[in-house]
Give the backbone structure.
Amino acid sequence: MKILFVVHASPNSGAISTLVNTAKIARGRGHEVSVFIMGKGVLNLTREDFIGLISDDVQITACEHSREKLGAPGNVDGVLSGSQYDLSVMANEYDRVISFIRG
């Protein structure tokens, strides 16, 4: 199964720990997992546990507009730069889309 997590939640939100744990479990069960971060979600590029998902073969794509607007780190190894168009394409290609919006 292909699972896409859309993340609006900021780094201090408890939702991010839930996301990280859920993504790791899904990968462990053989599912393809991607994360699209936007809004305050791009600030999670400062969290080591979040970025660590890359080593678990989780694709992370950051909304470039949000990243620039909020001054989140750029050029993070393994993180793709994207747009709302990219999110719409991804949402169409995945079996499940789960959104984390709090915080």
In short: The first helix runs from residue 14 to 28. The first strand starts at residue 2 and ends at 7. DSSP finds four helices and five strands in the chain.
